[in-house]
Amino acid sequence: MLLCKPERYIEQVVNDLTASSYVSLDIERKVLSMDVALLKQSFEMVAPQKEAFAHSFYQRLFSYYPQTQQLFAKTDMKRQEGSLVATLAMVIAGVERGDNLTPALQALGGKHVRYGAEADYYPLVGGVLLETLEEYLGPNFTPEVQEVWSQAYEVISTQMLEGARQQIA
Length: 169
Ligand code: HEM
Known about the structure:
Layout lengths: L6 H27 L2 H11 L3 H15 L12 H21 L4 H14 L5 H17 L5 H26 L1
Helix pairs in contact: 1-7, 2-4, 2-7, 3-4, 3-6, 5-7, 6-7
């Protein structure tokens, strides 16, 4: 099939395959090195206050980066706050079971292109997530907890951005 295509097209396919396998290898390595038990344990400490946690996350996001607020102009924020916590729970449960989360996360990233979530916003959101965790975990926000959440966020955002990139292509 590919042999009937112009050289430029084949080059593009090879590039895409190489780029996506680099992404998945790197992600695979990160997932394997992650202390999933610690991730889950720290998430469970926040879970009883999940509504307040999610509310505080968005308040912080909008106060630090007011430019992000316009993206949520028509959003039902109560529902959105629920989706944030549900997504984190889904990712933790998935990683624990060893599920392949790539398709779901890439699809979510693809949808975020339509929401106006630019790639530059992802690290900002990650920083706000970590600060909110610190606020709610207090002394339980140890350097190890910080490390495992940065790894988890990196895995999630890398997959979402890969989905966004494929959406744009
Ligand atoms: C790891 C990072 C992120 C996760 C897990 C996440 C998760 C979600 C989820 C579950 C939804 C619900 C709607 C759906 O299923 O499509 C959503 C919607 C949305 N997200 Fe994110 N998101 C992330 C990053 C971001 C970033 C960086 C931005 C940009 C500031 C952003 C802005 C939005 C907006 C504007 C919506 C649409 C709200 C609406 O329905 O009106 N998200 N996100």
